[in-house]
Design a protein that fits this description.
Residues 1-24, 296-319 are annotated as: Disordered. This protein has helices at residues 3-9, 21-25, 37-51, 55-95, 101-117, 121-126, 129-149, 159-175, 180-188, 196-201, 212-222, 227-263, 268-299, 309-318. It has 319 residues and is mainly α. It folds into 2 domains: 27-95 and 266-318, no CATH class; 118-263, no CATH class. The longest helix is centred in the N-terminal third of the chain and has 41 residues, at 55-95. The two termini are 61 Å apart. The relative contact order is 0.11. The model is unreliable at 1-8, 10-25 and 310-319 (pLDDT under 50).
């Protein structure tokens, strides 16, 4: 049968309509996991549309660029997942009060604050206002001591305000050999009962509001010459303690934030691999975009941009 008869008599060839599916729906879609393919195919269509790719070659180059972009996004998601995972480990370590690594630095910082404030480290982490409340209490005590130095008799304070003031006065009078029993009698107007002297000596006396004026009177009687200067010195100590609490609280918050920031960066080995992979994908992306632009300009009869091969190959040799 000659060729003419063959062409005349042969039955027409019907194309399988599925044959163009790969071109329409992403030839490289098999390179992404099945769970990602629906989103990936939409991504490919968007890249094709925005790039203006026409014809098989341009669409293939657009798909290559789309795949590189998709993989770059995956790298970003990997880094985010690594950071989130490590930060969760740090937060877990902080809650368990471990004393090593990033979490250990936070544990130590809040333990220092705990020793200054008295509240547990866990409570101080959960409620930063507790530290500020202690600083304000110390400053309030300083103000009351300064008022005593200016001649106030100590009347009118609440029990909460009287205790730290009375404790400061009582502790100092013990150092200058004022007898605990004398202090009890001045505060209560009666002779000491069993256990009163020991309570004063051990720092367990409550120093209630109605007891403070008597203690102030005893202070002035026993320290007539330098009592006011001592009160001002005690007040200064309270203000310094308040400043110390605020500084320690701020440092603890900074240490916690720094620990989470440090945990946000992958380990050196992982970071090196990610950086190399990311650089490789960027080279693939830029080469695909360059070649796509060249193919489009060639179809339009325009000059095409020069090759990137020398630059890309040099980068690959150094990667």
């Amino acid at each position: 049968m000659n060729s003419e008869n063959y062409e005349t008599n042969a039955a027409p060839v019907e194309r399988d309509p599925r044959g163009a599916n790969a071109q329409r729906h992403g030839i490289l879609s098999e390179h992404v996991p099945p769970a990602e393919r629906a989103a990936y195919l939409a991504h490919v269509e968007a890249v094709r549309a925005s790039s203006g790719a026409r014809g098989y070659l341009q669409e293939r180059l657009a798909e290559r660029a789309a795949l590189a972009l998709w993989r770059l996004d995956r790298v970003a998601r990997f880094e985010a997942a690594e950071s989130a995972s490590e930060q969760r480990r740090v937060l877990q370590g902080i809650s368990e009060a471990v004393e090593y690594g990033h979490a250990g630095a936070v544990t130590k910082a809040f333990n220092r604050l705990h020793r200054m404030v008295g509240e547990s480290a866990a409570c101080l982490r959960a409620d930063p206002s507790l530290s500020e409340a202690e600083a304000l209490r110390l400053e309030g005590t300083a103000a009351h001591l300064e008022a005593l130095a200016a001649g106030h008799d100590g009347a009118g304070l609440s029990d909460n305000e009287s205790y730290p003031v009375g404790y400061a006065l009582g502790t100092y009078m013990l150092t200058v050999k004022v007898k605990p029993g004398e202090m009890v009698q001045a505060m209560t107007g009666r002779k000491p009962k069993a256990g009163d002297v020991e309570a004063v000596e051990c720092g367990d006396w409550e120093y209630e509001a109605e007891e403070l004026p008597g203690l102030v009177s005893l202070w002035r009687a026993r320290l007539p010459e330098f009592g006011d200067r001592v009160l001002l010195s005690l007040a200064l100590t309270q203000r310094e303690r308040a400043a110390g609490v605020r500084a320690a609280a701020l440092e603890a918050q900074h240490v916690k934030r720094d620990a989470l920031n440090l945990a946000a960066l992958p380990s050196g080995e992982v970071l090196e691999k990610v950086t190399r992979y990311e650089a490789h994908l960027e080279r693939v992306l830029y080469r695909a975009l360059h070649d796509l632009e060249a193919a489009r300009r060639q179809d339009e009869g325009q000059d095409t941009p020069g090759p990137l091969r020398g630059v890309v190959d040099a980068g690959e040799r150094h990667a």
